[in-house]
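Protein fold
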Amino acid sequence: MTVLEAIDARHSVRAYQDKPIDQETRQQLDSFVKECNQESGLNIFVQYDDPDGFDSRLAHYGHFRNVKNYIVLSGKKVDDFDYLCGYFGEKIVLFAQQLGLNTCWAALTFNKKKVRELIPAGETLCMVISLGYGETQGAARKSKTAQEVTDGNPDQPWFINGIDAALKAPTAVNQQKFRFSLKDDSPFVRVKGLGTYTKVDLGIVACHFEAASGKKVQH
């Protein structure tokens, strides 16, 4: 499965099979996470075989079930922290999809007290991502149109491909509060309107755009 195929196949999954992640898959995922940390300066890690991370009323309210593995997005609170967590978190999500795993971003619906105990002193918790073999592959959700998230009407094929991929990216409560534009032949993304976790969302959609367009996104 290519990254673009992973973008098409990946949907939010909240219910998981009672099946441990095999060791070879863990090794591949941990190696990729290590590369992301080296590039970003973040401290992202995968917590395996730990049902306590999603053992909370909020998790049950959010319909999470049988979550025993999750990705923790954390690190020093530097400039662009939220954007970096979104960007590299989604790179890991897409890689996990390529490995046959399913995921779901979670901002509130997990056991924050438990997860914060895993974070080293002086570091900040951004979000977590549930991980495992889904009971289903999830389903596509309603999306805005390309015109609703684009300034002007760029007609370059690479830009159109990037927007198409960005519209498939997960965003908080599916708000899609982002806007792309083209400046001096370089793609630029910004927050459009008010919403929650919008800077994390920018990183997520930029990850998708870059994968499909081959162009680095400015923000």
In short: The radius of gyration is 17 Å. The helical segments are 3-9, 23-40, 57-61, 81-98, 112-116, 157-166, 198-213.
